[in-house]
Amino acid sequence: MLKEVFGSGSGATTVSVGLYNTSDDLADSSNVSSITTEPAGAGYARQSVTLDSDFSFGTSGGNWETVMADAVFDTDASTESVNGYFVTVDFQSEEAGDTEVSENLVFSGDLDQTYDLGSVTTFTMQGSGISLD
Questions:
Q1: What is the spatial distance between Cα 28 and Cα 11, in angstroms, rounded to a whole number?
Q2: Structural contact between residues 81 and 41, judged by C-beta atoms closer than 8 angstroms
Q3: Which of 24, 15, 22 is nearest to 105 (CA)?
Q4: What is the C-alpha separation between 88 and 91, in angstroms, rounded?
Q5: Cα distance between residue 25 and residue 13, in whole Å
Q6: What are the beta bridge partners of residue 64?
Q7: 97 CB-near residues (< 8 Å, 6+ apart)
Q8: Which pTM was predicted?
Q9: Which domain holds residue 110?
Q10: Sheet with strand 55-60: strands edge to edge
């Protein structure tokens, strides 16, 4: 099921991963425009993750899950604090009212703590993903 959602079902072969502060309080109806706390440093960019090669699929505690490979972000010149991540996929969303393929928020999650990007030049996100029961 997860492979269908993240792969052949959308036609996507890659997703984008970004960082943000969960004070944005995303809801099921939120989309990319709802994210206002994404880092703004000159070097920061969302990271591209390839669906088959950068995701592992399996079960844990009876739940289906997928975990992304590590994503390394350039945080030089960023001063924000982040405690969450989000994943976007390019597709035409009826729910969002898209009239063409565009970037849409698929899911978000919490990091294990809050990170002050002003104190590091790179940030490595490890072991993040989604679990469905």
A1: 22
A2: no
A3: 15
A4: 9
A5: 28
A6: 59, 132
A7: none
A8: 0.82
A9: 2-132
A10: 55-60, 63-68, 129-132
Residue 112 C-alpha from the chain's centroid = 15
pLDDT of the chain along its 133 residues, tens only? Answer: 445 455 555 567 788 999 999 999 888 888 899 999 999 988 899 998 887 777 777 777 887 777 778 889 999 899 999 999 998 888 887 777 778 888 888 888 889 999 999 999 999 988 776 655 5
Q: How many domains does the chain have?
A: 1
Q: Measure the CA–CA gap between 63 and 40, rounded to whole angstroms.
A: 36
Rounded Cα distance between 123 and 71, Å, is 8
Write the CB contacts of 56 (distance below 8 Å, at least 6 apart in sequence). Answer: 66, 67, 69
